[in-house]
Give the backbone structure.
Amino acid sequence: MSQDRIQALQKILKDPDASVRQAAADSLDALEARGSLQSLIEQLRTGDRGQRIAAVCALEQVQSPGVFVPLLAALKNDDPDLRAAVARVLGSKRHPKTLGALVKALKDPVPGVQAEIIRALSAFSDRRIPACLAPYLKGGDEVALAAIDALAHLGFAEGEPFLLESLGDERSAVRRGAAAALGRLNQ
Protein backbone atom coordinates (compact mmCIF):
# COMPACT_ATOMS: atom_id res chain seq x y z
CA MET A 1 0.00 0.00 0.00
CA SER A 2 1.39 3.35 -1.01
CA GLN A 3 2.20 5.75 1.81
CA ASP A 4 1.74 8.60 -0.68
CA ARG A 5 -1.83 7.47 -1.29
CA ILE A 6 -2.58 7.34 2.42
CA GLN A 7 -1.01 10.74 3.07
CA ALA A 8 -2.93 12.31 0.19
CA LEU A 9 -6.21 10.88 1.49
CA GLN A 10 -5.43 12.03 5.03
CA LYS A 11 -4.82 15.59 3.80
CA ILE A 12 -8.09 15.67 1.91
CA LEU A 13 -9.97 14.75 5.09
CA LYS A 14 -9.88 18.50 5.80
CA ASP A 15 -11.55 19.42 2.49
CA PRO A 16 -14.36 22.00 2.85
CA ASP A 17 -16.76 19.72 0.93
CA ALA A 18 -18.30 17.03 3.17
CA SER A 19 -18.74 14.60 0.28
CA VAL A 20 -15.01 14.79 -0.52
CA ARG A 21 -14.16 14.19 3.14
CA GLN A 22 -16.52 11.19 3.18
CA ALA A 23 -14.99 9.75 0.00
CA ALA A 24 -11.51 10.10 1.49
CA ALA A 25 -12.60 8.47 4.76
CA ASP A 26 -14.23 5.59 2.85
CA SER A 27 -11.06 5.08 0.81
CA LEU A 28 -8.91 5.05 3.92
CA ASP A 29 -11.24 2.48 5.51
CA ALA A 30 -11.03 0.30 2.40
CA LEU A 31 -7.24 0.51 2.33
CA GLU A 32 -7.03 -0.34 6.01
CA ALA A 33 -9.36 -3.31 5.59
CA ARG A 34 -7.33 -4.60 2.63
CA GLY A 35 -4.15 -4.34 4.69
CA SER A 36 -5.82 -6.10 7.61
CA LEU A 37 -7.01 -8.88 5.33
CA GLN A 38 -3.49 -9.52 4.05
CA SER A 39 -2.16 -9.51 7.60
CA LEU A 40 -4.80 -12.02 8.72
CA ILE A 41 -4.14 -14.29 5.75
CA GLU A 42 -0.44 -14.24 6.55
CA GLN A 43 -1.19 -15.03 10.20
CA LEU A 44 -3.42 -17.92 9.10
CA ARG A 45 -0.64 -19.32 6.90
CA THR A 46 2.36 -18.86 9.17
CA GLY A 47 1.19 -18.22 12.72
CA ASP A 48 1.25 -20.67 15.59
CA ARG A 49 -1.87 -22.66 16.43
CA GLY A 50 -3.47 -19.93 18.55
CA GLN A 51 -2.69 -17.22 16.02
CA ARG A 52 -4.20 -19.30 13.22
CA ILE A 53 -7.44 -19.85 15.11
CA ALA A 54 -7.55 -16.16 16.05
CA ALA A 55 -7.02 -15.24 12.38
CA VAL A 56 -9.92 -17.50 11.34
CA CYS A 57 -12.17 -15.87 13.93
CA ALA A 58 -11.12 -12.41 12.76
CA LEU A 59 -11.72 -13.32 9.11
CA GLU A 60 -15.35 -13.94 10.00
CA GLN A 61 -15.76 -10.16 10.35
CA VAL A 62 -14.04 -9.34 7.06
CA GLN A 63 -16.45 -8.70 4.20
CA SER A 64 -14.29 -9.53 1.21
CA PRO A 65 -14.25 -12.33 -1.37
CA GLY A 66 -10.54 -12.58 -0.59
CA VAL A 67 -11.26 -14.51 2.62
CA PHE A 68 -12.56 -17.65 0.97
CA VAL A 69 -9.43 -19.08 -0.67
CA PRO A 70 -7.38 -19.05 2.55
CA LEU A 71 -10.32 -20.31 4.62
CA LEU A 72 -10.94 -23.20 2.23
CA ALA A 73 -7.24 -24.07 2.33
CA ALA A 74 -7.36 -24.04 6.14
CA LEU A 75 -10.30 -26.45 6.03
CA LYS A 76 -7.69 -29.05 4.99
CA ASN A 77 -5.23 -28.21 7.80
CA ASP A 78 -3.95 -30.98 10.10
CA ASP A 79 -5.30 -29.22 13.22
CA PRO A 80 -8.89 -30.35 13.92
CA ASP A 81 -9.62 -27.29 16.07
CA LEU A 82 -8.62 -25.04 13.19
CA ARG A 83 -10.79 -27.03 10.76
CA ALA A 84 -13.75 -26.74 13.15
CA ALA A 85 -13.23 -22.98 13.49
CA VAL A 86 -13.06 -22.62 9.71
CA ALA A 87 -16.30 -24.59 9.33
CA ARG A 88 -18.04 -22.26 11.80
CA VAL A 89 -16.84 -19.19 9.91
CA LEU A 90 -17.80 -20.59 6.51
CA GLY A 91 -21.25 -21.40 7.86
CA SER A 92 -21.68 -17.89 9.16
CA LYS A 93 -20.64 -16.41 5.81
CA ARG A 94 -22.92 -18.75 3.79
CA HIS A 95 -21.12 -18.09 0.53
CA PRO A 96 -22.53 -20.43 -2.15
CA LYS A 97 -19.09 -21.20 -3.57
CA THR A 98 -18.03 -22.79 -0.27
CA LEU A 99 -20.91 -25.26 -0.14
CA GLY A 100 -19.18 -27.95 -2.21
CA ALA A 101 -15.99 -27.77 -0.14
CA LEU A 102 -17.99 -28.11 3.07
CA VAL A 103 -19.83 -31.15 1.73
CA LYS A 104 -16.50 -32.76 0.76
CA ALA A 105 -15.10 -31.90 4.19
CA LEU A 106 -17.86 -33.97 5.83
CA LYS A 107 -15.49 -36.92 5.37
CA ASP A 108 -13.28 -35.46 8.11
CA PRO A 109 -12.10 -38.24 10.44
CA VAL A 110 -12.75 -36.22 13.60
CA PRO A 111 -16.38 -36.36 14.81
CA GLY A 112 -16.23 -32.91 16.41
CA VAL A 113 -15.12 -31.40 13.10
CA GLN A 114 -17.83 -33.31 11.25
CA ALA A 115 -20.41 -31.91 13.67
CA GLU A 116 -19.17 -28.34 13.06
CA ILE A 117 -19.29 -28.86 9.31
CA ILE A 118 -22.85 -30.19 9.61
CA ARG A 119 -23.83 -27.13 11.64
CA ALA A 120 -22.22 -24.93 9.00
CA LEU A 121 -24.19 -26.64 6.25
CA SER A 122 -27.42 -25.94 8.10
CA ALA A 123 -26.87 -22.24 7.40
CA PHE A 124 -27.24 -22.79 3.65
CA SER A 125 -30.67 -22.85 2.07
CA ASP A 126 -30.06 -25.69 -0.35
CA ARG A 127 -32.49 -28.58 -0.77
CA ARG A 128 -29.64 -30.98 -1.61
CA ILE A 129 -28.19 -30.77 1.88
CA PRO A 130 -30.57 -33.22 3.61
CA ALA A 131 -29.41 -36.05 1.33
CA CYS A 132 -25.78 -35.13 2.10
CA LEU A 133 -26.48 -35.29 5.83
CA ALA A 134 -28.42 -38.58 5.80
CA PRO A 135 -25.37 -40.87 6.24
CA TYR A 136 -24.31 -38.91 9.32
CA LEU A 137 -27.52 -39.79 11.16
CA LYS A 138 -25.86 -43.18 11.70
CA GLY A 139 -22.68 -41.60 13.10
CA GLY A 140 -21.70 -41.20 16.71
CA ASP A 141 -24.00 -39.29 19.03
CA GLU A 142 -22.43 -35.86 18.47
CA VAL A 143 -22.52 -36.22 14.69
CA ALA A 144 -25.99 -37.78 14.54
CA LEU A 145 -27.50 -35.13 16.80
CA ALA A 146 -25.83 -32.35 14.79
CA ALA A 147 -27.31 -33.84 11.60
CA ILE A 148 -30.77 -34.00 13.18
CA ASP A 149 -30.51 -30.39 14.35
CA ALA A 150 -29.32 -29.34 10.90
CA LEU A 151 -32.24 -31.09 9.21
CA ALA A 152 -34.65 -29.39 11.60
CA HIS A 153 -32.99 -26.00 11.07
CA LEU A 154 -33.11 -26.38 7.30
CA GLY A 155 -36.78 -27.32 7.57
CA PHE A 156 -36.96 -28.92 4.13
CA ALA A 157 -39.42 -31.74 3.49
CA GLU A 158 -36.49 -33.58 1.87
CA GLY A 159 -35.23 -34.29 5.39
CA GLU A 160 -38.43 -36.03 6.48
CA PRO A 161 -37.61 -39.58 5.29
CA PHE A 162 -34.26 -39.46 7.06
CA LEU A 163 -35.81 -38.21 10.28
CA LEU A 164 -38.57 -40.83 10.10
CA GLU A 165 -35.93 -43.52 9.77
CA SER A 166 -34.10 -42.08 12.78
CA LEU A 167 -37.19 -42.68 14.92
CA GLY A 168 -36.14 -46.33 14.84
CA ASP A 169 -32.56 -45.68 16.02
CA GLU A 170 -31.41 -47.65 19.06
CA ARG A 171 -30.29 -44.45 20.81
CA SER A 172 -33.03 -42.60 22.67
CA ALA A 173 -31.31 -39.23 22.19
CA VAL A 174 -31.44 -39.74 18.43
CA ARG A 175 -35.10 -40.83 18.52
CA ARG A 176 -35.98 -37.86 20.73
CA GLY A 177 -34.10 -35.45 18.45
CA ALA A 178 -35.74 -36.89 15.33
CA ALA A 179 -39.21 -36.63 16.89
CA ALA A 180 -38.61 -32.98 17.81
CA ALA A 181 -37.11 -32.21 14.40
CA LEU A 182 -40.13 -33.59 12.56
CA GLY A 183 -42.25 -30.93 14.20
CA ARG A 184 -39.91 -28.21 12.96
CA LEU A 185 -40.04 -29.09 9.26
CA ASN A 186 -41.68 -26.40 7.18
CA GLN A 187 -43.62 -28.59 4.78
Notes: The two ends are 52 Å apart (CA to CA). The mean pLDDT is 92. DSSP finds eleven helices and no strands in the chain.
